[in-house]
Amino acid sequence: MSAIQARQDASGPRLDPERNAGFLLVSIANRISASASRTYMRHFGVGVMEWRVLAMLALKPGITANQIGQISAVDKSSVSRATASLLKRGYVRSIEDPADSRRLMLYLTPPGRALHDRIIVAALARDELLMDGLSAKERETFFRLLHRVGSNTALLNAYDPSAT
Question: H or E element: which one contains 6?
């Protein structure tokens, strides 16, 4: 076991939450997500999942809820609930996919676009606060390393503890 991932004590190895990449990344992501959800609900009336759907539809009009889930690595049911809420409130519209009538392509409505355009200002300001104190070079390095670590998730999916 790596010293980076665990610390040893008299009773054996223990997780070191300050040096375990998975634990630390999830912990930070959970704090960011909870804060975003509180902020967006309080100021814009939508939670973080609705915001993710709005953001993805602004970026890729016509994608499906399933594609949103795949791109953002969120379970399908969470995306479906958020999409249903946005459809009901008139922020999103759906159109049957001409190539496959079982799929619905999603689009922002004018009110949905306006809501997105208000939230994106706050989202970008929050991102700037998150990156406060990092130089442009450090930010570039940070994103390069995050992408590299992200590409290693395929290794996690293939890992079989019984094979070691």
Answer: strand 6-9
